[in-house]
Predict the 3D structure of the following.
Amino acid sequence: MAIPSEEAQTEDYLFKIVLIGDSAVGKSNLLARFARDEFYPNSKSTIGVEFQTQKLDINGKEVKAQIWDTAGQERFRAVTSAYYRGAVGALLVYDISRRLTFDNINRWLNELQTHSDMNVVTILVGNKSDLKDAREVTTAEGKSLAEAQGLFFIETSALDSSNVAVAFQTVVKEIYNILSRKVMQSQELQKKDSGRLANGKTVVLQAEENQEAEAQAKKGGCCSS
Ligand SMILES: Nc1nc2c(ncn2[C@@H]2O[C@H](COP(=O)(O)OP(=O)(O)OP(=O)(O)O)[C@@H](O)[C@H]2O)c(=O)[nH]1
């Protein structure tokens, strides 16, 4: 049976990415901007769960991201554990013009860590960077929280499109890189295993050769080296 190439294995993957953060930080609009290049100035709170599948080009290969969006407000939220199940990436969003949304980031991070079943590649996103005059959270504060928690960091604007694609691409690219490293490691292991088998065969052959040599010696044959 042919071993699937690294390319074939990664191309077939669909990465589940979740959007999380307080109500009205701009989660739905980040997704609308990224998936359809649209913006809704008066969008209503998300009710339940929505998702969009988006194709991305990572290192010249096509990768699909299934991006999930739900309401930041508790009463509109769908079942939490189902939302996080199988997620491999997350955009943790706050609004740079509302400090409270930044103060709540640790709460969201705890929820993500509690409900997800693996290490989720996470980027901290300070959205609404266009609202310069209303800024309540500095870029340095965002960076330092991200560093402390081991997250990627970016500031975006769904309104003027700034950094929106980069935010999603950063997460998908990192997941892809982790996966590629795992595929390479498992291929290395397979190579080592087949090396061991080959060595085992060599040992058997040598034993058979020795037996032949011994038999010949007994018959009074030869063999100086
Ligand atoms: N100025 C500005 N406004 C934004 C930006 N992104 C979203 N908004 C506005 O912020 C409001 C809330 O945006 P949503 O995308 O609905 O926020 P959400 O986080 O999905 O909200 P929930 O569904 O309640 O959790 C809307 O009025 C948007 O038009 C942005 O980058 N800049």
About this structure: The chain is about 45% helix and 20% strand. The CA atoms of residues 23 and 74 lie 9 Å apart. Residues 1-10, 200-225 have pLDDT under 50 and may be disordered.
